[in-house]
Specification:
Elements lengths: L2 H4 E10 L4 H15 L5 H14 L3 E3 L2 E2 L2 E4 L6 E11 L9 E10 L3 H16 L1 H9 L3 H10 L15
Parallel strand pairs: 1-5, 3-6, 4-6
Antiparallel strand pairs: 2-3, 5-6
Helix pairs in contact: 2-3
Length: about 160
């Protein structure tokens, strides 16, 4: 699956002023509803918050990847917030977060969910690429950068067991 298949341009926001993790999740929920009509903001928010209760999705190095699964989701969708200033996100490294990417997938899409999480973790684990994302000054610039990203791996390959 390609990046532009899961991100709509209107769901990628640059230079957003947000002061808390809760408000970031609320904003992401609103964006995900745009990408997945038929859902409501409260149900998307509750899905994201429910996952956060299991443990923070703060990846470290200023990035977080909240995600959830809902029965009413027809296809995977993502939203990205590039924040003006970092927020406390309970990230594993204790650093503030200024890139927050939310993923929502259909409830039964377990394998696809894991592949998409791996792809997003690769994107937001690439510190040089994240610096480019942070430097984007507009929604359009941020979306263009994001959709030009190329994986170093073939994510369509089956995972090979470690031996």
């Amino acid at each position: 699956m390609e990046i532009d298949e899961i991100f709509l341009p209107e769901c990628v926001i640059a230079q957003k002023k947000i002061s808390s993790k809760k408000r970031a999740l609320e904003q992401l929920s609103e964006l995900l509803v745009i990408a997945s009509p038929g859902l409501t903001q409260p149900e998307v928010f509750e899905s994201l918050v429910g996952r956060e209760r299991l443990g923070s999705t703060g990846l470290g190095h200023g990035a977080a990847l909240p995600h959830g699964r809902l029965k009413a989701v027809e296809k995977p969708v993502c939203a990205l917030l590039q924040l003006k200033t970092g927020i406390d996100y309970d990230a594993v490294d204790g650093q503030s977060v200024d890139l927050v990417c939310a993923l929502l997938v259909p409830e039964e899409a377990t394998n696809e969910h894991l592949k998409l999480l791996a792809m997003l973790a690769e994107i937001f684990g690439d510190e040089q690429f994240c610096q480019q994302l942070r430097a984007a000054g507009s929604d359009a610039d941020l979306y263009q950068l994001l959709t030009q990203w190329q994986s170093k791996y073939d994510l369509d390959q089956q995972a090979r067991p470690c031996v």
